[in-house]
Amino acid sequence: MPAPRRPRLCFVGPLAGVRPGYVVTQAVRHFAHFAAAGWPVLAVSTRRNRYARLADVGWTLWRRRRDIDVLILEVYAGMSFVIEDLASRLGSGARVPIVMVMHGGAFPEFAARYPIWARRVLGRASVIVAPSSYLARTVRSMGLSCRVIPNVIDLDEYPFRERGHPRPTLLWMRSFHDVYNPAMAIHVIERLRAAYPDARLIMAGQDKGTMAGTMDL
């Protein structure tokens, strides 16, 4: 008896992280793991420009709508929410189950500012998941269910090494933008060095206007 066919998955989100020098998002890791496990996977979009990404997402979902069994949509706040709105509309129109994966610490503020829009888009989801209770609380406050599933990491990339005299090294990896408050990392390392004088801080990310100011601290 042949094995049942696996659902055809479509991951929608910012996937520029497949290219060197760009942040590797959870969507990149998710579709790579599913593809490696033999699942039929479609992923969109690797376009860096948000307008090109919007067009790519819309065209791909329309053209490949008969090749998708489950739509997995990465949800962020801000301008990218336009993409989530379009993708969820197309998914709903094609009667495809939609799994929305919440991201972004700014989403609670965004949802408070645009409650009707946020509720309308998230209401199209069959399932909503979030990596933290922080985001899940916002979704639940809108009268929607949300399950907490932590972000995935590859444990092989983080080997454990016991140290008798710890010399902490913190890695901060985000875009240098006010919304991510890079200055906070500087203040954290200052306080940490009171107990661990050899503590180090490594910061990496794209400059979105605050890198120079952060380096001056």
Please give the structural blueprint:
Layout: E1 9-12, H1 26-36, E2 41-44, H2 50-63, E3 70-75, H3 81-93, E4 98-102, H4 107-113, H5 115-122, E5 127-130, H6 133-141, E6 147-148, E7 169-173, H7 183-192, E8 200-204, H8 211-215
Parallel strand pairs: 1-2, 1-3, 3-4, 4-5, 5-6, 7-8
Helix pairs in contact: 2-3, 4-5
Stretches where pLDDT is under 50 for at least 5 consecutive residues are none
Biggest sheet layout: 6 strands, parallel
Helix content: 25-40%
Backbone CA Rg:
20 Å
Number of DSSP E strands: 8
The chain-level mean pLDDT equals 91
Give the helix/strand class.
alpha/beta
Shape: globular
SSE string, helices as H and strands as E: EHEHEHEHHEHEEHEH
How much strand content do the residues show?
Answer: 15-25%
Tally of contiguous helical segments? 8
Widest sheet: strand ordering: 2-1-3-4-5-6
Task: For the record, give the distance between the C-alpha atoms at the N and C termini, rounded to a whole number.
Answer: 66 Å
